[in-house]
Amino acid sequence: MKTMFKTTALTAVLALGAGVAAAEIRIGATVSETGGASFLGDPAAKTLRMLVEEINAAGGVLGQPINLILYDDGGDPNRARTFASRLIEDDEVIAVVGGSTTGTSMAIIPVFEEEEIPFISLAGGIEIVRPTKPFAFKTPHTDRMACEKIFADIQARGLRRVGMISGTDGFGASMRAQCLDVVGDYDIEIVADESYGPSDADMTPQLTNIRGTAGLEAVVNPGFGQGPAIVTRNYAQLGIEVPLYQSHGVASDAFIQLAGAENAEGVRLPGTALLIAGILAEDDPQYAVVQAYKTAFEAEFGQPVSTFGGYAHDALRILVDAIERAGSTEGVAIRDAIRATENFAGTTGIVTMGEDDHLGLDLAAFRMLEIRDGGWSQID
Amino acid sequence: MADLLQFLVSGITVGAVYALLALGFTIIFNASDVVNFAQGEFVMLGGMITVFALAAGLPLGLAALIAIVLTAGIGVLLNKLAIEPARGAPVVSLIIITIGASIFIQGVAQIVFDKQIHRYPGISGDAPLRFAGATILPQSLWVIFGATAVFVALWLFFTRTLTGRAVLATANNRLAAALVGINTRYIMTLSFGLSAAIGALAGLLITPITLTSYDVGIPLALKGFAAAMLGGLGNPFGALVGGLLLGVLEALTAGYISSQYKDAVAFIVIIGVLFVMPQGLFGRKSTERV
Amino acid sequence: MRLSPKLVSLSVLALLALVAPMFFPSGFYYRIGALIFINGLAVTGLVILIGYAGQISLGHAGFAGIGAYACALAPVHLGLPPALAVVLGAALSAGLAWVVGRPILKLQGYYLAVATLGLGILISMVLTNESQWTRGPDGISVPDLGLRGVLADMGWRLTAGQFWYWFSALVLFIGAWLALNLHDSPTGRALRALHGSEVAARTVGVDVARLKLNAFVISAVYASVSGSLLAMMNRFVTPEIAGFMHSVEMVVMAVLGGVGSVLGAIFGAAILTALPQALTMFHEYEKLLLGAVMILVMIFLREGLLPSILRRFRGKEE
């Protein structure tokens, strides 16, 4: 037992003190590969590993191979914070991708700000980029934009009275707050506001209450993971007739399969070009990038691409593009180059960053999708 | 009125899930005085093995059988490798061992299976049945039927069979049971196998409703544990009532009070009941075991 | 000559904290050290509850949550200086522990486990749901303690990592000293008598209910202060800090290391804090390994790692 302990200690020391290697571009990542947000982090981690291999096979960046150092924070902000320190102080990376959730992203941003290391988050929360922080960027649309897109569509359909049912996880709670905040800009009234826990098995009580709300005209469900699939099933079970809107948090083919095509029929959600790769026009500016990523990912892992993997794809591509343009591995130079990103075609949209815009996407990049016959179709 | 009925339907469905978990806790506790926090992993395994067996093209019946048998085997292994060697350890060590087992099984599952969420169609299809303004999924009826059947079978087992009585005798006094010739090691092995099989059955029944993934075990185990404690550890009837009560309470809270705090009400009730009845609603008076 | 165990424990602790930084290959290790000390503080409280008094809690992360959110909210809403927010958090935790402790501690074994579990979950639920105060599951930023700035003004410049390493080491040292003093006091002896047999302790005139309550309240304060330190070091906190898994983590650290002694429990905190960092290269197998370690230690080293290791050494000498 004692020798085993010694060996463990030795391994620990070796692992912690992994040496510095020769010329390479060190890029760090901390994502939630496991835990409650693994739905987001797992495809992101897969995507990053796949892309780095691809980039290195094509000659790397600035003539050097990328060394991706990826940690799994399990969705725990405290662990993410530890890994952020480790990436900067021990692994000495030049930039970091990650933070699968708004919580983990917000927990680690101060580290990057202090060390002047560029950071591209994969989380939805608007507070990551507003107010603008000098070194923090992100690739996903904000949850506020998702609310705006949904409300605009509801309004265009001539509907007014909306019920909400939100997950109490970070994603659902944050989007719920943004929706309540932005609803005043539309001629829409929130008439019901229910919630459910991330591991709940049945939402019919909440939906029964929503169904019983007088004059209900539409329902919005901010959430991710299995929750929205169960909500969609229960919605059909209760025979609620008004339109159901899901968020970009469910945007993958897996959702249709989990919710059941017949239950998901007519469900609308703001999604990205990635989801409708099959029906995308060939002259669409995102056509090439979306096809390339989708084909590569599905061939490599045998599972459908999701929007979340797409966020990681865009983050790494933007970063690599910026490093090439900066011609330097120095933090401020890379940051300035990311800021100068212009008309970059990603899976999520066409990105044009700016001094005061560390997201670079507008509502146009969001496509209002509707599920028809078990597949996606574009409304606008 | 239709609303109330719908809440009750929801509560009984979810409650039946909790009851199945609580029954699993009960069997193992009776045989070994161990509360097995890995019980939720048996449920996960039941669902996940079925998912992958179906994906491999097996028919549902065979997939279900494989899931139950494999999980029962894992239950027996858990007992042989982790619980039996720790005989006589204090409660806190046993809690850590079974939570450790739970984490271990999750760790294996995330490698052997995947981290995706899965589902397969219900046994009798997914078209809801309507009655008196409320709706219920046929699969919910299967879950409720499953919980009732397991309860009745256990009750008959514990009261009518020699082996079942041997389990109860072991629960009351291990030494005395051994002295009258009961093979207590065999009883423990049997209980773990049985409990794991029940967990797997629960898993394969609930997956069409709740969906499954490698990490669903711990939240389920906590609810099942709470239900078992509410009913009183060691009593199958208590497990059934505790589970159903917890499910109905949650549904009524979500329906009438606040969906945000439905889990809170469940725990407040449990703490309240324990204040008044420290052994739960139907618990047996246990010997002091600190 | 034989040194008192108290003196040995404190000297070992101080020596390790002082010497370790000489071997740090990078600034990151200060953070790991600080995390070990902060976790060590929480498990020292559990030594009093589990090790001395023989009671279980699966909800102590709830108190860490109270301590952490006191530091996030009190400076903003009440205008308290962060240092006083720590005290406020500790007072709130102690108050809550005192109110719920009396009825809860009448329960035994698994019933006590489920009641404390429920308590912890209730606290984390309030932190998650009352988002108008706590800003919900995505967390809230925490004001700076300010002491580092004061030190810098006095010409003593430390990085954040260094500051929190030394500061949390100091707090842990004080916490350990208090716990060790308690161990040798009449209360400590009465507590340990209670651990042996509650009935026997009661027969010889020990006020069992009051003693258990004291142990519960004291351990809640340790957990609360540990939560405060973690929040202020990270400058950010989410409701995760009060979650069930954090409660389990604390108990596992304490019991794995050896819950019978302060040093053992802190050793457990060190191992479990450093282990995930060492295992990142096998990250795929991390859960599997952690689970296996928990099972194996509890089976083969029942008193915990440190006491078992020490016994081996002593065994060889004799």
Task: Give a written overview of the molecule.
The complex is a heterotrimer of chains A (about 375), B (about 290) and C (about 325). Chain A is an alpha/beta fold. In chain A, helix 3 packs parallel to helix 4 and helix 12 crosses helix 13. In chain A, helix 8 links the parallel strand 8 and strand 9. In chain A, about 45% of the residues lie in helices and about 15% in strands. Chain A folds into two domains: about 25-140 and about 290-365, Response regulator (Rossmann fold); about 145-275 and about 365-380, Response regulator (Rossmann fold, 3-Layer(aba) Sandwich). In chain A, the strands form four sheets. Chain A has a five-stranded parallel β-sheet with strand order 2-1-3-4-5, sandwiched between helices. In chain A, strands 7-6-8-9 form a four-stranded parallel β-sheet, sandwiched between helices. Chain A has a three-stranded antiparallel β-sheet with strand order 10-13-14. Chain B is mainly alpha-helical and about 290 residues long. Chain B has one domain (about 1-275): Orthogonal Bundle (ABC transporter involved in vitamin B12 uptake, BtuC), CATH 1.10.3470. In chain B, about 75% of the residues lie in helices and about 0% in strands. Chain B contains eleven helices and two strands. Chain B has helices spanning about 1-30, 40-55, 60-85, 90-110, 140-160, 160-170, 175-180, 185-210, 215-230, 235-255, 260-275, and strands spanning about 130, 135. Chain B has a two-stranded antiparallel ribbon. In chain B, a hairpin with a 2-residue loop joins strand 1 and strand 2. Chain B starts with a helix and ends in a 14-residue tail after the last helix. Chain C has one domain. Chain C contains 15 helices and two strands. Chain C has helices spanning about 5-20, 30-50, 60-75, 80-105, 110-130, 130-135, 145-155, 160-185, 185-195, 200-205, 210-235, 245-255, 260-280, 285-300, 305-315; strands spanning about 140, 235. In chain C, strands 1-2 form a two-stranded antiparallel sheet. In chain C, helix 1 packs antiparallel against helix 8 (about 160-185), helix 3 runs parallel beside helix 5 (about 110-130) and helix 8 (about 160-185) packs across helix 9. The model of chain C has no long low-confidence stretch (mean pLDDT about 85). At the B-C interface, helix 4, helix 9 and helix 11 of B face helix 5, helix 12 and helix 14 of C.
